[in-house]
Specification:
Elements (H helix, E strand, L loop, with lengths): L6 H25 L6 H29 L2 H27 L9 H20 L7 H25 L14 H25 L5 H27 L10 H14 L14 H25 L8 H56 L3 E6 L4 E4 L1 H6 L4 H4 L4 H5 L15 H8 L3 E9 L5 E13 L2 E11 L1 H36 L8 H32 L7 E4 H19 L2 E7 L2 E4 L1 H17 L6 E8 L5 E7 L24 H5 L5 H11 L4 E5 L5 E8 L18 E5 L3 H13 L3 E5 L2 H11 L3 E5 L7 H10 L8 E5 L15 E4 L4 H17 L2 E5 L3 H12 L4 E5 L2 H11 L3 E4 L8 H9 L9 E5 L5 H4 L7 E5 L5 H16 L33 E2 L4
Parallel strand pairs: 7-9, 13-14, 13-15, 15-16, 16-17, 17-23, 18-19, 18-20, 20-21, 21-22
Antiparallel strand pairs: 1-2, 1-5, 3-4, 4-5, 6-8, 9-10, 10-12, 11-12
């Protein structure tokens, strides 16, 4: 027996003990029937008291071993009381004492002591308040109850009950004292039962019931002693036996050792206790005055009334003092909290008024409730004039055609209606003088008791930023058109001079001409790199995406750099290559050339540079690697080397002739393809630069079964039915499920309702144009993450504002390969934006899990505790969570519970990766979205990687004919696939025809 005994085992034992106790009571109820001889019944009564007392003592002893804290001390006091009572009964049996003819003072004292110990035990239970004043009030409540019941008994049962008490320590005195203490115990038990709201309430109720039966038997005993008719073996003795047994049964009631006791509110308990106490006083008074038959009040009754009045009065004094103290404490707390609230209000007001951005609040109807000075100044209005105004109607600019902007499409209305944070990167407000200015806006809903009561809007004037962008574009235009022309002339002239075609030059002049020519070529490269990088990142540089053999691009890059490598004494080696990628081959060759160029520059003579490219185990990407044996890169610079103009050593630009843009361009090209690039290095041990590109997986047209119901849906929006039909046929051949619509409004409605894997939209359509469709889908909460591909007869330079909002651009007419490539690369880009949260306290195992996932271009965050996981989940909004159940600070179920409570996380796919098997009945409590259960002993990191990639594929809509939930160990039922949380769109890859 110990504290580790489960609740299930406790319940089974309790169900066994109850019928045994009932049977014991029934047996002795039969044995005490008047039909049996007096001597037989006396023996039966004594034996019953002895057996029930010992059984109760043993039960209480076992209960003390299973309990902790105050409960354990309470049960220990009751155990001491039980043992004391048993000793008294044994003593009385040994000496042959009789309560009337030959009373035993030792026996009477032991019983009275047992009852006093019981009172201490009852007051020790956690349901009793801990403060001494409250315990004193309970003692006084018991005193009032005992006195009131004795007065009523002396009037209603036997009028000589109290008159027989001739002196203290006499047998008649103890015969009255004992039921008095019993009634006090019953009062304590009743108060504790009413106060308790926890698991201990049934056990307390059983204890109170046991003392109630004991009180009835003791009161009967007192009456019969006063009448001189008491003898052992009568039926009233059954009250003692049953009382003992019920207290023993209470000790077997199942209870978790750490289960809390929940008390009702203090005010309710005090009111109810007062009503009970004074009800007892009132009933006693009525009985005394109405039913006493005109007899004089006995001296003992007078003493009881004095005791009763004194106890009741003292109780009320203590209760009043306690309430006064509590009131003063509450008043002090209210004053402190009011001061804190005022201080917080002043601090909040200071923060809002000091912020440079405009901030205003609106109620649920869109009326302004407050505005900060910066907001009022930006709108050229006074704060007082803005209060109560309809913000949307007052300063939200109309559409380009002059029509009022619809309120339902407003970001503020969306925040209020949906209860989510909305934003607009570009919107237009109107000042009081009618001038317009561009703003960037974020609207956050105000939620009170799960009800949206309004919104807080933060806006920023971006006029200056747009002016800077315009100046940058003008500068690039000047660089492109004005600097290149004279540079070309200068370079050509210097080339002619250095080559001797304009006549022989002196050796010194020839040297100067060559230096000038090399500097001109370096300046030309710098200009070209800057323009190249800007075009790639702005999404205006077309990309020709097509299935390409990996080996061809690797060999092209190595062949281009071979002469340079031979001149530096560095050997270029083509390693293992395999597979096809869906890429713009020229851009990939440019990336590889940049990387090989860097590797050769920083390799010593006799060194080797190895270039290889192999498909990843996931079957979705190809990993390209360029490895050198150069000086290496410091660890703290491995991420910054891809920034613009970054040089590991400031002297590199002069010594190696670099511009610091090659790696930045390479990163932009890789990310435009939906891949990821990174470097691994240690100083003095060489560097490996790696990047991933999407593996081309073309579904053969021959024998193709077409799209299935599980295939990714692609929404096609074009006002020409023939175009919709042709594009649909192409996509069906490659395993997609096309859905055609003929106008922009239908496209918006269908995309919002169905959330397809991708949307193809024609720009020029009557009514709602393709640009309107793109803007609306990017603004909608359900559609902002759907990949969008534009169909147009013109290139992306005609609509530069759409480039960053789309994931692809197709110039009509479109070939089948271009169409499929655009869809595949758009979906691959969504996979690159995916995030995985790994919750694992073992750092080594976490590294083993994270490394291969990062190799697929996936962002992986690691948390080693439950608290860190909950914080990371709310910040990261991952697409998949890998969770270990045994964490240092809490169980993994706490992480699941926290994610379930967050609407943005409750449908997140989950992989539970635990050391032990998860029981079937527990799995329902550990599920989020699609949930997979893996055991570390049976499923290694490779299997885990496969499951995570499968869930990611399902999230981004790429798995054409796969079960969206990979199997567990064993597999659970599949669940609904969650939607990807909102994320800013990535600049779009662009496909167009060669002209």
């Amino acid at each position: 027996m110990g504290t580790s005994l489960s609740l299930g085992a406790q319940r089974r034992r309790f169900r066994l003990v109850v019928p045994i106790a009932v049977a014991f009571v029934v047996v002795f109820a039969i044995l005490l029937q008047p039909g049996f001889p007096r001597g037989f019944r006396e023996v039966a009564s004594s034996l019953g008291l002895l057996i029930s007392g010992i059984a109760t003592a043993v039960s209480l002893w076992l209960r003390t071993r299973r309990s902790t804290g105050r409960r354990r001390r309470a049960w220990q006091w009751l155990l001491a009381a039980s043992v004391t009572a048993v000793v008294g009964n044994v003593w009385m049996a040994v000496v042959g004492a009789q309560p009337v003819d030959d009373p035993s003072l030792v026996s009477d004292l032991s019983v009275a002591l047992a009852l006093a110990l019981s009172i201490v035990g009852m007051l020790t239970f956690p349901a009793a308040r801990r403060r001494g004043r409250n315990l004193a009030i309970m003692v006084l409540d018991g005193t009032v109850g005992g006195a009131a019941v004795l007065i009523m008994a002396s009037v209603l049962v036997y009028d000589e009950l109290l008159a027989s008490v001739d002196h203290v320590l006499g047998s008649e005195f103890f015969s009255v004292l004992i039921p008095f203490l019993d009634i006090a115990l019953v009062t304590f038990g009743l108060l504790l039962v009413l106060r308790s709201r926890g698991e201990s309430r049934p056990a307390l109720a059983l204890v109170a019931l046991g003392f109630l039966l004991y009180a009835v038997a003791d009161l009967s005993f007192a009456v019969r002693v006063a009448q001189g008719t008491f003898a052992w073996g009568d039926l009233p003795d059954l009250g003692w036996i049953a009382g003992y047994l019920i207290i023993g049964v209470a000790a077997w009631y199942p209870l978790h050792p750490d289960a809390p006791d929940v008390e009702e509110q203090r005010a309710t308990a005090d009111t109810r206790d007062t009503v009970l106490v004074y009800s007892a006083v009132g009933v006693a008074a009525v009985v005394q005055t109405m039913l006493n038959g005109g007899d004089a009040i006995q001296r003992a009754q007078v003493l009881l009334w004095l005791l009763l009045g004194l106890a009741a009065g003292l109780r009320q004094v203590l209760l009043t003092a306690d309430n006064a103290q509590l009131r003063r404490g509450l008043e002090r707390q209210v004053a402190e909290q009011t001061s804190d609230l005022r201080r917080m209000a002043r601090r909040t007001e200071t923060l809002i008024t000091s912020v440079g951005d405009g901030i205003y609040g609106v109620d649920a109807a869109g009326r302004i409730t407050f505005v900060n000075p910066s907001g009022a100044e930006a709108l050229r209005q006074s704060p007082d004039a803005l209060l109560g105004q309809d913000a949307h109607a007052l300063f939200h600019a109309p559409t380009a055609d002059g029509a009022a902007y619809p309120y339902d499409g407003c970001y503020v209305a969306e925040a209020i209606a949906s209860g989510i944070v909305t934003n607009a990167e570009e919107d237009v407000y109107v000042r009081a003088d009618g001038t317009r200015f561009p703003v960037e806006i974020t609207a956050s809903p105000l939620i009170d008791d799960d009800e949206v009561t309004g919104a807080v809007v933060v806006f920023r004037d971006v006029t200056q930023r747009q002016e800077v962008d315009r100046m940058k574009n003008e500068f690039l235009s000047v660089v492109s058109h004005e600097l290149r022309t004279p540079l070309t002339s200068i370079r050509g002239s210097l080339g002619l001079l250095a080559g001797g075609q304009l006549g022989e030059l002196s050796p010194r002049a020839t040297s100067m001409a060559r230096i000038a020519l090399e500097s001109t070529e370096r300046l030309t490269r710098l200009i070209n790199d800057i323009l190249d990088l800007e075009r790639i990142e702005s999404g205006t540089r077309p990309m020709e995406l097509a299935p390409t053999d990996v080996r061809s691009v690797v060999e092209a890059a190595v062949g281009e750099m071979d002469a340079m490598a031979r001149g530096a004494g560095v050997e270029l080696v083509v390693g293992e290559t395999a597979g096809q990628v869906l890429v713009d081959s020229d851009r990939v060759v440019q990336t590889l050339t940049n990387l090989v160029n860097n590797a050769v520059k920083f390799s010593t003579a006799g060194g080797q540079v190895v270039v290889d490219a192999v498909p990843q185990p996931s079957g979705t990407t190809v990993l390209f690697r360029v490895r050198d044996q150069g000086r290496g890169i410091p660890t703290d610079q491995l991420t910054t080397i891809f920034d613009r103009f970054h040089q590991v050593d400031s002297s590199d630009a002069r010594q190696k002739g670099g511009t610091g843009l090659g790696l930045a361009i390479s990163r932009s090209i890789v990310e435009r393809h939906g891949g990821r690039i990174w470097a691994e290095s240690s100083p003095g041990e060489g560097t490996t630069v790696q990047f991933t590109l999407p593996l081309h997986q073309r579904t053969p047209a021959t024998g193709a079964t077409g799209a299935t119901g599980d295939a990714p849906a692609v929404l096609i929006c074009d006002d020409e039915p023939a175009v919709v039909g042709a594009l649909s046929s192409m996509l069906e051949e490659h395993g997609y499920r096309p859905v055609g619509v003929g106008d922009g409004d239908a496209a918006i409605a269908r995309a919002t309702a169905d959330r397809p894997a991708a949307v193809l939209v024609d720009l020029r359509m009557p009514g709602t144009s393709g640009a309107d469709v793109v803007a609306e889908l990017r603004r909608g909460e359900r559609t902002r993450t759907i990949p969008l591909i534009v169909l147009s007869g013109l290139g992306p330079e005609t609509a530069p504002e759409l480039g960053p909002q789309t994931d692809g651009w197709l110039v009509k007419p479109v070939t089948e390969e271009q169409l499929v490539a655009a869809v595949e690369i758009a979906l691959a880009g969504r996979l690159r934006e995916s995030a995985v949260l790994v919750v694992e306290d073992d750092e080594d195992l976490a590294e083993v899990i994270c490394t291969p996932l990062r190799g697929h271009g996936i962002r992986v965050d690691h948390a080693s505790t439950a608290a860190a996981a909950i914080e990371a989940g709310r910040r990261l909004r991952p697409q998949v969570v890998v969770l270990d159940l045994h964490l240092p600070d809490d169980d993994g179920s706490a992480v699941v519970a926290a994610f379930r409570a967050d609407p943005a996380l409750r449908a997140t796919p989950l992989v539970v990766y635990s050391a032990a098997d998860v029981e079937v009945e527990r799995r329902a409590d550990l599920e989020l979205g699609p949930t997979v259960f893996l055991t570390k002993g049976r499923s290694g990191p490779d299997a885990l990687e496969e499951r995570v990639l499968g869930l990611l594929d399902a999230v981004v809509g790429r798995a054409a004919e796969q079960d969206p939930t990979p199997p567990s160990d064993p597999a659970p039922d599949p669940a609904t696939i969650p939607r990807t949380p909102p994320r800013a769109p990535h600049p779009a890859p662009v496909l167009q025809e060669e002209r």
